[in-house]
Amino acid sequence: VTTAPAALTVRDVTVRFAGLTALDAVSFTVEPGSVHAVIGPNGAGKSTTFNVLSGVYRATSGTVHLGSTELTRLAPHRIADLGVARTFQNLALPPHATVAESLMLGRHRLTRAGFVASGLRLPSATREAHRHLERVREIAGFIGLDKELDFPAGALPYGKQKLVELGRALCMEPQVLLLDEPIAGMTADERRRTAAVVAGVRDSLGISIVMVEHDMGVVMRLADAVTVLDFGRRIAGGTPAEVQNDPAVVQAYLGA
Ligand code: ADP
Ligand code: MG
After folding, report:
1. Which atom in ligand 1 lies closest to the alpha carbon of residue 18?
2. Distances (CA, A) of 248 to 36, 40, 213, 229, 234
3. Which residue numbers delimit the ABC transporter domain (predicted)?
């Protein structure tokens, strides 16, 4: 019997900064087509985990695999090229770009014809540009912003700007999407809308999602699996229901 490899396998990852162990032999696996939440109190190591997965921080020891491909210690752009896209906790959209232009940024790594061909207006480059624009339109529809393609992204309400950021990551055609607090700072309405888009990314696009999120309500509704960190250690893991009733988790959150 052969089983599909996990989308992401994090094995015994330790990250040390001068005198401080931010992650201590943390392991978890992200199943294909699932939402995997990483939660824990402040300082638990959530952002460090996120930064290791995206290549911003290097693991002191341990490994990260995408399927059977090792990602450990690759540069962020290599990890993105291999199919792990991320969003940023704070918005990282260019200030004057339209929604379409912001989404198109996610297509750059997929551009084969390149700038020379497009500068010469070769037919291949034109065809490719059309293909990218088609995909940008589809993804704008997916995030519910197809009416706002020519609108300056920076002038949209905060919740929609965050959706553009998510759409930009989707434009990279990732296998795994890393979401850093995707609903933080949103209104209730924006939170509902974003949660529905995230569920759609999993259910319609089949993309695996790793989500660092503070809002326990959203984690419980959306996540298929949860890893709980505290002081850099994995203290619990399982389904949302299992984790919610775990005494170690209750204790960590109550600080008892
Ligand atoms: P969380 O996101 O769960 O709040 P972090 O991963 O940001 O936690 O931080 C975990 C620990 O690692 C904290 O004690 C934090 O101060 C420390 N830390 C994180 N990044 C760095 C860094 N670049 N240099 C030194 N210490 C860091
Ligand atoms: Mg953090």
Report:
1. 25
2. 19, 11, 19, 10, 10
3. 8-256
Domains of the chain from N-terminus onward: 1-83+174-256 (3.40.50.300), 93-173 (no CATH)
- Average of per-residue pLDDT across 19-23: 95
Question: Distance from the CA of 252 to the center of ligand 2, in angstroms?
Answer: 16
Taking CA atoms only, the protein residue closest to ligand 1 atom 26 is 17
Question: What is the distance between the alpha carbons of residues 4 and 13, in angstroms, rounded to a whole number?
Answer: 22
Q: Which pTM does this prediction carry?
A: 0.91
Cβ of residue 228 lying under 6 Å from some atom of ligand 1: no
Mean pLDDT score across all residues of the chain: 90
Reported as a single tens digit per residue, the pLDDT across 49-64 is 999 999 999 999 999 9
**Pairing relation of β-strands 208-212 and 35-39?**
parallel
Does the beta carbon of 175 lie inside 6 Å of ligand 1? no
Q: Which atom of ligand 1 lies nearest, measured to the CA of 15?
A: 12
